[in-house]
Amino acid sequence: MKKLMLLLFICCLFLKLNAQQQQNHDFNSNNPTSDSIYVLKSDTSYTTFKYPMQFNSFIQVKVHSLKKLFQNAAKEKKTISLFLEGIEMNDIVPIGMDKSKEVLFFILHRNNRTMNQWKILRLILQEKKNKELTVSIGLNGEEAYPSTLQLPAELSRNSDYYLAFFSYSFAIIVFSFLVKRSNALREQRHNDLDGYSLSKTLFAFWFFIILFSFVFLLSAINSFPHVTVSVIVLFLIPLTSSLIALAGNDTRQLSRNRTAQVSAIDFPRDIVSDAQGINIFRLQLILFTLFTGYYFVSSVITEMMFPVFDTYFLVLFGFSHFIYLTFIFWANKKKL
Known about the structure:
Layout: H1 2-30, E1 38-40, E2 58-64, H2 66-76, E3 80-84, E4 87-89, E5 96-98, E6 103-107, H3 115-127, E7 132-139, E8 150-152, H4 158-181, H5 198-221, H6 229-247, H7 266-272, E9 273-274, E10 277-278, H8 280-303, H9 311-335
Antiparallel strand pairs: 1-2, 2-6, 3-4, 3-7, 5-6, 7-8, 9-10
Helix pairs in contact: 4-5, 5-6, 5-8, 6-9, 8-9
């Protein structure tokens, strides 16, 4: 019995000592040394902490031992980067600082290098209930320093989806006006009974999609959106195709009688058919364009930025236009 009591006493003593050591370890972890680098919440004089972070938000990060941070950056020849949820946000570096308060200033801009990081953060916010992100700093290519700073974030807002709906609805209305009330999309603009041109239609389609996407992003993020190179190339392809098609005299003698009253089916029938009926070369280009346009618009709404298209996809998109142009010149040569 005495041995059992002694064994219990030794076990209790061991558990007590272990708990005390764990308590000391936690205390040391929460109270780093004076020269340690870690992130705290700035004082209340910086009012931006009262609002959720959004794209292109201006935020401040209070860094303990800011001087040592710059010394480490100079020693290792690395830049200071912003970290959100432990994810390094490429190209988001300090734009200024307040040395007296040890505060760094950042702007949450987006570009091609940060696109994947923002996608991950969007998924994280969708899963989190408190909708907050841990904000920290660190050296480029390294891990983030410890941080107790958590800021509310709002990367997706219901108002943005309403704004997108009205923007693209207005684009459809303007496009429909061009089709019904204007001859701008007809093969011969001065002929009210002439057929609609596919090349002009595709150019107008991409012009309005890109224009109203730009307006939507400008209104949603309150700054000029970054237009990617692939978007410019995507627009140049139908523009070049339209100019070549017009230069090649893309006209058809449609095998039907026209009246002054424009039918509701005239427009889709014109752009998809020729004198012999539905043309497979025109149809493939229309379907490819609609698919690409859907992906373009959905990417703008969900990612809040212009999409980046793969080089192979752009080549395939250009090849689709090339097939259509080849058919035009082949048909014109056959007429001769």
